[in-house]
Amino acid sequence: MRGADEQPGSMFSYVSLEDRVPADHPLRAIRRITDRALAQLSPRFDAIYVQFGRPSVAPEKLLRALLLQALYTIRSERQLMERLDFDLLFRWFVGLGIDDPVWSPTTFTKNRDRLLDGDIAAAFFQAVLIHAETARLLSEEHFTVDGTLLEAWASQKSFRPRDEEPPMGGGANPTVNFHGQRRRNATHQSRTDPDARLYKKATGREARLGYLGHVLLEHRSGLIVDTRVTPADGHGERDAALLMVQDIPGRHRITIAADKGIAKDLLASLNYAPGKRYEDFTSSTDKVAEYGLGALIGVVAVKKLGLIGMLGLFLVKVWKLAAVAIAAGAAAVRRFLRKGGGDQAAA
Q1: Quick one: which of 6, 27, 43, 122 has the most CB atoms within 10 Å?
Q2: Using an 8 Å Cβ cutoff, are 74 and 95 in contact?
Q3: E-strand stretches of 122-270
Q4: Rounded distance, CA 39 to CA 20, Å?
């Protein structure tokens, strides 16, 4: 029997939002960690809000909504509020009931800026990091530094000479035409985002207005343990990597993985303990160090040369043993041939 396509105008639901979310949904684990971190930030929330007046949007709900915006790559606050209005999963995660009204995008943006100005975002990150460290999810010895280009919300047409008057006309700057002009950060500046700089991520790629974002990841669980944002210039990635490495707590031995250019800059900027540098190597006493350095060079050569290079490297390392083995083999063959010749003569 075919069911009827009924369109009810109103509905009463007796199923709570908690029951609608599956028990194994990934957001449940994220919600538990988030609530534990927000509970630690409650005293800081009290410090940035006054004790009188009309209640504002709860900062805990704002941070949960911002987390959803990052996890689901929602481009704007307006789209986030639209999704929050009809998505029951979003309502459950933020802490809104089925009938609760959502906030206007302007109210959400204003309250968000208040939290960011109070360094709440950084404190929230540290609170989540403490939870990961308590659960023994973080490595204290092996790390990776990496960076990427964060594009600014500024158009290429806004990147104008510093001493130039604003163009006539509104809209999308129809009178601006920068094609064929030589534009540099020293002489030009964005009218929309003055701190953004023109930057090329790689040779042959187009230049974009933006900033450089940097992360420090640990190797046990692949979690980000530190972040930095710097101006888009040729030294931001190196400086941020050095700062993040120096902020690693403790004085124990660590390993750092990085791009080739950054690794060279890090090696040149770090301070080594006396007696631990390659310049302090003494061939007469440091036999272990000699072997370790040779093995390191050998592994790099094998990666470059392949199987043939590996065989050649092995022969170079053990040439004395190889010469003795070849001489012994030749002597055995010679004795065998002489014995065979003598047997034939006797016959």
Answers
A1: 27
A2: no
A3: 142-151, 159-161, 188-190, 197-199, 208-218, 224-231, 255-257
A4: 25
Sort strands 142-151 and 255-257 into parallel, antiparallel or unpaired.
parallel
Contacts of 234 by beta carbon, 8 Å cutoff, 6+ apart? none
**Residue bearing the bigger pLDDT, 288 or 111:** 111
Helices (H) and strands (E) in the chain, counts: 12, 7
Tens digits of residue pLDDT in 186-243: 888 888 888 999 888 777 788 889 999 999 999 888 889 999 999 988 788 888 888 8
Q: HSE, CB side, 13 Å, CA atoms: give it for residue 284.
A: 0
Number of domains in the chain: 3
Place of tokens 């060279």: 264
| pLDDT at 168 exceeding the cut of 80 | no
197 plus 315 within the same structural domain: no
Nearest to 70 by CA among 99, 30, 97: 30
pLDDT in tens, 246-289: 888 887 788 888 887 777 777 776 666 666 665 665 666 555 44
Q: Which of 200, 263, 193, 203 is nearest to 234 (CA)?
A: 200
Token code pair at residue 174:
């129809």
Give me the domain span that covers residue 201.
140-164+180-269
Place of tokens 């959803």: 68
Q: Are residues 82 and 155 in the same domain?
A: no
Closest CA to 108 of 68, 59, 157: 59
User: Do 260 and 236 form a contact (C-beta atoms < 8 A)?
Assistant: no
Strand partners, 210: 151, 197
pLDDT of residue 297: 37
> Which own/partner pairs from 225-230 qualify as long-range (CB within 8 Å, at least 24 positions apart)?
225/129, 225/138, 225/143, 227/125, 229/150
- Return the SS3 of 247: coil
> CA angle 214-219-225, nearest 5°?
40
Verify that 51 and 148 share a domain, yes or no. Answer: no
